[in-house]
Amino acid sequence: MIRVLLAEDQAMVREALAALLGLEPDIEVVAQVARGDEVLAAARAHDVDVALLDIEMPGGTGIEAAAVLHGELPDLKLVVLTTFGRPGYLRGAMESGADAFLVKDAQAARLAEAIRRVLAGERVIDPALAAAALAEGANPLTDREREVLRAAADGSTNADLAATLHLSPGTVRNYLSTAIQKLAARNRTEAVRIARDKGWL
Amino acid sequence: MIRVLLAEDQAMVREALAALLGLEPDIEVVAQVARGDEVLAAARAHDVDVALLDIEMPGGTGIEAAAVLHGELPDLKLVVLTTFGRPGYLRGAMESGADAFLVKDAQAARLAEAIRRVLAGERVIDPALAAAALAEGANPLTDREREVLRAAADGSTNADLAATLHLSPGTVRNYLSTAIQKLAARNRTEAVRIARDKGWL
């Protein structure tokens, strides 16, 4: 039996995926967690073969969890599962050691198939998304620029951002204008949208 | 057997929910669709007792689909299922004739339970969310203000918005400033965020 850990924050979706995998004769979901920072302990405790990681979770994204698992448990196979097939997400997942990258738009049968294939030593990714990620290049934003852009997404003013991030208003303005320029955007809202669509935030 | 129609655009999530409901001895998923505008035909073709509707779908939201089903097939029970437990979504679903409103964060067992309860003539909603929806009042935005705010969410300029929406730039400015004022926001980005959080967009 293939022992699977399922990390997904929406309980109903998580249990539904477990029910789906439970229909497979060779797969057993042995652990379920709802937060990125619970993944490593659960993988260790349950002697897991494959971790299935949703990207958007509290307590750290699935991509961050993949990096931790890859460092601590190098034999564990990692399948990243996401609502959004963004090129930057795929790149981030692969750089973090993921073996497979699946979108929730895919047919359900692809999930069990991906689990079996990564255990056979294969990588499983969508070729079109891989092409887009490679064509697009790496994320041009620095960590600080991403942090400021993410914080700006809710309509905060420069003064708000400066207070929240413990920066001077001038520094906030500089980070924002550099990010807007790198993304060829016309304003901060467009910059947030572009960075989000590409999976760079 | 309770005959269920499942409308959800993410194939993997939809099939996983079908697998979950398939474990129940008294429930049968007899139809699955991925678009809001396919719901009515499928409900008619498969003699359905309960329609389970995701809100965010292409071809019309689950709330719009609920209104259509409620008008055309008044005996059909309607369960609205959503990622986002936004008060405005709950209000919209109830006004459209939904019998139950569930978030995907809820325990999986709640889903089958809700299906059985709506068939017994009950309404199933989260009391805390209902209280929030009632406390908050109705959506203050007009259709036009919502349209302009939605279009402004990607960072479009007033000139872009005017061209896209076939309005004059002055009219766009007026709609935006009224919306910003109604939402007690400081700028359009904050207005978009507030309206989205409340489920008013």
Automatic annotation (TrEMBL), chains A, B:
Q: Where is the Response regulatory domain?
A: 3-119
Q: Which InterPro entries match?
A: CheY-like_superfamily (IPR011006), Sig_transdc_resp-reg_C-effctor (IPR016032), Sig_transdc_resp-reg_receiver (IPR001789), Tscrpt_reg_LuxR_C (IPR000792), WalR-like (IPR039420)
In its keyword annotation, does this UniProt entry include Phosphoprotein?
A: yes
Q: For the modification 4-aspartylphosphate, which residues carry it?
A: D54
Record protein name field: Response regulator transcription factor
Look up keyword Nucleotide-binding and say if it applies.
no
Domain HTH luxR-type, residue spans: 134-199
Q: Which biological process terms from the Gene Ontology are attached to this UniProt entry?
A: phosphorelay signal transduction system; regulation of DNA-templated transcription
Q: Which GO terms describe its molecular function?
A: DNA binding
Give the species this sequence originates from. Actinospica acidiphila
Per UniProt, the keywords (alphabetical) are: DNA-binding, Phosphoprotein
Gene3D superfamilies on file: 3.40.50.2300
